[in-house]
Amino acid sequence: MNLSRRVRAAAAFPGILALALAWAGPSSAPAATPAARAEIAVYAAASLRDVLQELTPACEKAIEARLVFNFGASNDLARQIEAANKADVFLSADETWMDHVARAGLVDAASRRSLLSNRLVVVGASDSSLTIAAPSDLKSAAVRRLALANPEAVPAGKYAKAWLEKTGAWTPVADRVVPFPDVRAALAAVESGGVEAGIVYRTDAAISTKVKVLYEVPAADGPKISYAVAALKDRPQAAAARRFVSWLAGPEATAAFERSGFIVPAQAP
Amino acid sequence: MSPLLISLKVAGWVTVLILPPGVLLGLLLARGGFRGKSLIETAATLPLVLPPTAVGYLLLRLLGRYGPLGEPSLGFDLDLLFTWKGAVLASGVMALPLVVRTARVAFEEVDPRLEGMARTLGLGRVRTFVEITLPLARRGLLAAAILGFSRALGEFGATVIVAGSIPGRTQTLALAIFNDMQIGHDSEAMALVAVTVALAFAAVFTVEILLRKRPDVA
Amino acid sequence: MTPWLLVDINLPLDRFTLSVKWETSGPALGIFGPSGAGKTSILESIAGLRRGARGTVRVGGETWLDSARGIVRPPEGRGVGYVPQDALLFPHRDVLGNILSGSGRARRSGAPRVDPERALEVLELRDLRHRDVSGLSGGERQRVALGRALCSGPALLLLDEPLGSLDQPLRRRILPYLLRIQEEFAVPTIYVSHEATEVTLLCREVLVLEAGREAARGRPEEVFIDRAIFPMARAGGFENILTGRVVEASRSVATVELEPGTRVTVAAQGQSVGQDVIVAARAEDLILAVHPPTGLSAQNILVGEIREIRQPGGGDGGIDEDGGQVVVVVRVGRLGVPLLATVTAQACRQLALAPGGRVHLVCKANSLHVLATR
User: Fold this and answer.
1) Same domain, A78 and A44
2) In chain C, what residues touch B113 (CB-CB under 8 Å)?
3) Is residue A81 located within the same domain as residue A99?
């Protein structure tokens, strides 16, 4: 009696496991395009997650290759590429980390270009009562904690710190800064109410329903934000990778970027 | 405060705070035969098996603005998120199962008949526990404390979510290693790793000695 | 007069239910029975260590258990001095620490205090007081456990096979301590034993337990020679027990007067004249003669009358052809208790032994042991 009960209880475990897997399910996979044969690994900055996933079906059709993404903070991605070059394309949120990878001799220089720009915004929870009219307002006692992507390494954080330093607001708020592994984590912190305010990209604020923009950093006040893209050297799918990089500069991609709030610089011919 | 000091402070507080409930739970599970025992056993073991990030996320939802323990719900601010106290909470939850299990084993090795004998001599339940059970279990309980301390020292997943990696405030050794790695400060990271390994080695070594059975004397 | 002890317990055990009802006022009680009869369970129930026990336990006017009224006093409130079979000493305390373990209750109980120093002396533990208990011998451990129970101010002592785990020579040495304790400290005691000799020596009343139920009750001398109980008693080692006083003593032998006119010679063990002693002879060691024997090396010849002849299985009187040992019950002089001798059925027939017949009991001096001196 005792034994069969235990056996039955143990047998329930695989059943529960199966249920959990079915519920979690595979993440939204695009319908397999009939022509997809080649596969390219795209390592892209976290802030590009939504727009790139939106563009995937059209892109895969156009370049005749499947896209496999790895999103994260640009500094993390750069080190992953250095450690084991499994990436075909690198999309960094700043030029510095692309330079880093280039110094390691891994970048196909001919394919490199500055693709996008962005704006910084100060965000708070949707029901926040904070008013930020100028960087110095961040000093107020109401802002107990300020979420940034790690200002020592992550582009979004470095940009934010550069802006605050430029406007003289860094020193008073420095010890309120809570660093996060990437810009989306900082955004999540603001959404959860764990911090009163955060500095993220305009494009991040746009996709979140739980935060509102308290202040948009004017282009003149902030540092120059530039996203770099390049195909990587010595990879089997070099051709497909270059096609991808070119496509990103094309009209369909540009329109999507601009819709999301990115700034596409006018292309030099 | 350096990462080492923050780690020691957090782990120290964790040990002090989870030892009493951990030991009591261990006692309960070792001696009690009550309804719902399996349930309590499972709940106490859960953080051992769950990914630390899952635990951290749950705590974040609990303590955040929109959670049942957030300021709007409670009426006052617990002020745990992104503070060293939050690190204590997160590491404490992760370390508790280890303390409970080790304490339980320590109590199971104390012959309950000795406790019965003490009661016949006039010692009530509490005095029996203090004068007989505790002294006989002390090696195992010390091991439980050290294991709890070490686990808290090494905690990352739950801590980084609940307390963040704020240098000088909540950036423990584990978080600092990750941070240095992220920035690319490899030699600093290795130095911190060396410190961590040394601490862990000392702790585990001590525990092994404490838990080694004493040779039976005829 | 209300009995001092009332035990009415029902306790389900593995193979049977323990069911005992016992009221008594004696100061020294015995529970006798084979292993597994439930003796230890009774003690544990009285001590409050058995949760499943139902019924009534009243000791000295205090109710320790009354299931009907929902009264269950916890062990610490019962005033019991429990000495289990395996001593159960506290390993983290030394000898003195163990003995003083119950001293808090002793102070609070208001019972006449047993001075720990006196207990140490009586039990000959003074030189061991600071020893680590893990290094003690079996006999020493037993004595420490005894001392611990005594010094805890108990209303009732429960001794579970106090000599059980010891070999014969050690038993002989500890027995005097138990007697001494009885005399010196006079705490009401219940002894559990599967040895008839111990029970006879130490107890005034015995309850015989078989498979959880009472098989007999009464004074040990009478209960053990009862035909239904004797086989059990013999299995544990039955001895005829006699008391007397030493009237002569030399290097090799001593003469003990059992009653005026009846003397026996025993192998001497340092007795001195005037000592009260208890001597014992096993039933197997007694030889029967129908004619006064002469020229024997044996030093002791007692004359008596056959009161009863018992053989295994059959009724009184008739003797079985294939019977094994036969028990002959002999009344000797004015000795309070009859002596039991066992002979073969063949011998019984050859000698034509019958109740009422005159018979001589022969016993070597070496077969009469001195069990204890007072």
Assistant:
1) yes
2) 84, 88
3) yes
ipTM passes above 0.85? no
Strand, coil or helix: C20? strand
Q: Domain span at residue A76?
A: 38-117+226-260
State the residue for tokens 């060293």.
B84
Per-residue pLDDT reduced to its tens digit, C263-321 = 889 887 778 888 888 888 888 889 999 999 989 888 899 999 998 887 665 444 444 44
CA B53 – CA B70 distance, rounded (Å)? 20
* The predicted structure's pLDDT at residue B131: 94
Is residue A206 located within the same domain as residue A232?
no
> What residues of chain B have any CB closer than 8 angstroms to a CB in chain C?
111, 113-114, 116-125, 132, 135-136, 217
A239 shares a domain with A113? yes
The answer to whether A193 contacts B179, with C-beta atoms less than 8 Å apart, is: no
Domain boundaries along the sequence of chain C: 5-237, 241-373
Do residue B164 and residue A178 have CB atoms under 8 angstroms apart? yes
More confident residue, B50 or A22: B50
User: Are residues A192 and A133 both part of a single domain?
Assistant: yes
The structure's pTM equals 0.76
Number of domains in chain A: 2
Q: Please check whether residue A2 lies inside any domain of the structure.
A: no
List CB contacts of C121: < 8 A, sequence separation 6 or more: none
Q: Is A182 within a domain?
A: yes
H or E stretch including A43? strand A38-45
Identify the band that residue A22 occupies on the pLDDT scale cut at 50, 70 and 90: low
| Of the candidates C96, C99, C100, the residue with the CA atom closest to the CA atom of residue C128 | C96
Which option is the CATH number for C241-373: 1.20.1070.10, 2.60.120.430, 2.40.50.100, 3.60.15.10?
Answer: 2.40.50.100
Contact B122 C47 (CB under 8 A): no
The domain ranges of chain B are 3-211
Tell me how close the Cα of C356 comes to any Cα of chain B, in angstroms: 53
Sort out which chain A residues have CB atoms less than 8 A from B65's CB and list them. Answer: 125, 192-194
Cα angle A225, A226, A228; round to 5: 155
Q: Nearest by CB to B64, which of A152, A154, A193? A: A193
Chain B residues within 8 A of C101 when measuring between CB atoms: 118, 121, 123
Could you count the other beta carbons within 10 Å of the beta carbon of residue C165? 15
Query: What is the structure's pLDDT at C114?
Result: 81
Burial class (CB in 10 A: 0-12, 13-18, 19+), A12: exposed
**C135 contacts B118? CB cut-off 8 A:** no
Q: How far apart are CA A251 and CA A260, in angstroms?
A: 14
**CATH 3.40.50.1100 is held by the domain B3-211:** no
- Whether A107 is in a domain gets the answer yes
Q: CB of A52 within 8 A of CB of A44?
A: yes
Res. B213 pLDDT band, cuts 50 70 90: low
Please, which residues 40-69 of chain C have a Cβ atom closer than 8 Å to chain B? 47-49
CATH number, domain with residue A233:
3.40.190.10
Task: Find chains touching chain B: ≥3 CB pairs under 8 Å.
Answer: A, C
Helix A49-63, helix A238-248: angle, nearest 10: 120
Cβ <8 Å between B70 and A193: yes
User: For residue B169, which of B85, B86, B84 has the smallest C-alpha distance?
Assistant: B84
Question: Does chain A touch chain C (at least 3 C-beta pairs within 8 Å)?
Answer: no
pLDDT for residue C271: 80
- In this structure, whether the domain defined by C5-237 belongs to CATH 3.40.50.300 is answered with yes
User: Which has the closest alpha carbon to B179: A181, A70, A146, A183?
Assistant: A181
Give residue-wise pLDDT tens across range A192-220.
888 999 999 999 999 999 999 999 999 89
In this structure, chain C runs to a length of 374
Determine whether the interchain pair A125/B65 forms a contact, defined as Cβ–Cβ distance below 8 Å: yes
User: Which neighbouring-strand residues pair with C160?
Assistant: C192
